[in-house]
Every structure is written in C-alpha cells, then in structure tokens.
Design goal:
alpha+beta; Alpha-Beta Plaits; Arc Repressor Mutant, subunit A; 2 domains; 4 strands
C-alpha cells in the first residue's frame, strides 16, 4: 500500500514520519520524501490516526490525485536542488517530463493551478533557500555555490538572490540565518 504525505522536505522529515508509522504499528517497507510504502494495507482507523498525528507534526496524508502529483513534482525538484548537482543548462521541462512520464504542459498547468506559482518559480525559491543554507554554513564561496546550483555566473545568482530576498548574498551572509525561511513556507513566496 502506497501513501503520499505532504510537507516532507528533508531527511529529518523522513525519519519523523518513519517513527510515527512504527509507533502506530504500520510497518513501512519504504519511507522517502513524500511517499511511504507499507508492508500491508492499513485500516481506515489506522489511516485516520496516522493523519491526525501527521497533522500535529506539520504533515498531511494526501488522498487527492492532483495533490499527490504536486507533492511528487515538489519532491523531485527539492531532491535535485539538495543534491547540489544542478547543471548550468538544467531543463526543468525535460527533467520532470522524463521523471513523471507526462507532458510538461500538463505538469506546468497542474502545478500553477494548485500552487498559485509556476514550477520555475518554485524551483528558483528552492535554489535560493539552498544558497541561504550554504551561505550560513560558509563552507563554499559564491562561485562554488553558483556552479553547484546551475547558475551561469555569480552575477546571475546574486541578481536572482536579491530579487527574491531583497538582500545581496554578502549582506545576507553578514546578518546570518535570521532571515532564512523554512522550506515549508517557500512555495508561497513569489520568485
């Protein structure tokens, strides 16, 4: 039995959801971002209890096909950004079409309709959050960050960063992590 869970955006989320499944005696065969595969089907009561517990933790069981598809799109894009291996000429169109085996115009229209922003805006917001994270940790310089996240230049990264955050990357780094948004809230900002 496969379940889809909203707001799973990191490895910590996967760990928390796995713990909750085990507490409720639902045996997970696999837990990954946005998806859970159970060894055996859950009862309605188990699913209700799981959903109530997940809501308390900021997650939500999805039952709507559109929502499931959106979470899959988000998770694919988040994983791509978190990998730190975004090629300079990375094509969201090709990446999502291939991964989901669907026409990109359908994916794009569905995402915009449900989320209120474009897939591209969501991807940019994810990249900017990753830039913030890397700046706060200070392990990489802007040139290395721009290369990892597929920007054509430091100037392009800086311009996009300023457009989204209102700050330059160097100013952000000075003031630290106090302006960093949680990944859960990222999709509601405009790129």
């Amino acid at each position: 039995m496969k379940l889809y869970i909203k707001n799973m955006v990191c490895n910590r989320c996967v760990m928390v959801v796995k713990q909750e499944l085990e507490k409720l005696k639902l045996l997970p065969a696999l837990v990954s971002m946005g998806e859970v595969e159970l060894v055996k089907p859950a009862t309605e009561k188990q699913l209700h209890n799981l959903n109530e517990r997940l809501k308390e933790l900021g997650f939500e069981l999805l039952d709507n096909q559109k929502q499931k598809q959106i979470e899959k799109i988000k998770n694919l894009l988040i994983k791509k950004v978190q990998s730190g291996e975004v090629e300079e000429h990375f094509s969201i169109t090709n990446f999502l079409s291939k991964a989901l085996n669907k026409d990109y115009s359908y994916i794009s229209r569905l995402f915009s309709e449900v989320e209120g922003i474009t897939v591209e805006q969501f991807f940019i917001l994810q990249k900017i959050e990753k830039v913030k994270e890397l700046l706060v940790y200070g392990e990489l310089n802007l040139s290395e960050i721009s290369y990892q996240l597929g920007y054509s230049s430091v100037a392009h990264l800086s311009a996009q960063f300023k457009k989204v955050t209102g700050l330059t990357p160097s100013h952000f780094k000075k003031i630290g992590s106090s302006h960093r948004h949680s990944l859960d809230n990222v999709n509601h900002k405009q790129a």
